[in-house]
Amino acid sequence: MCLEPNKSLQIQDIIGLKPQHFADLIRTAQLVFDPAAGLSGRNVKIDWEDFGIPSDVADNLRELGQEYQYASPHLPPEVVWSKLTTSSRIWFIENKDSLWRFEEIFPSLDED
């Protein structure tokens, strides 16, 4: 059990995931969970497949976003990795360098 975080970090190094990628993923998950960014009176329905997020991955991100709704996006990578499904991990690896675009499209949770 103690070896699991080390194994996870080794996998991340091999596939080129950095802490910033994980922060971008958490921000994306927060937006998938609440695209209105907590603004009352705004009910936003998004078809995440239109944005390249398959429905099973969106479901996993929604759960992650709900759990860390108000958390800093800078969580330990091994914690985030352990909460991703296999399909979400694959999607994350394939999209790691473009996750920042979701913050450009939707309002950020930490902006005034």
Structure annotation, total helices = 6
Estimated helix fraction: 55-70%
Structural class: mainly alpha
Major β-sheet, in short? none
Q: Give the H and E element order.
A: HHHHHH
Task: Average the pLDDT over all residues and give the rounded result.
Answer: 84
Topology:
Elements: H1 3-15, H2 19-33, H3 55-67, H4 77-82, H5 86-95, H6 101-105
Helix pairs in contact: 2-3
List keywords for this structure.
6 helices; single chain; 112 residues; mainly alpha
Description of the structure:
The structure is a single chain. The chain has 112 residues and is an all-alpha fold. The protein has six helices and no strands. It has helices at 3-15, 19-33, 55-67, 77-82, 86-95, 101-105. Helix 2 crosses helix 3 (55-67). The longest helix is centred in the first third of the chain and has 15 residues, at 19-33. The relative contact order is 0.22. The model has no long low-confidence stretch (mean pLDDT 84).
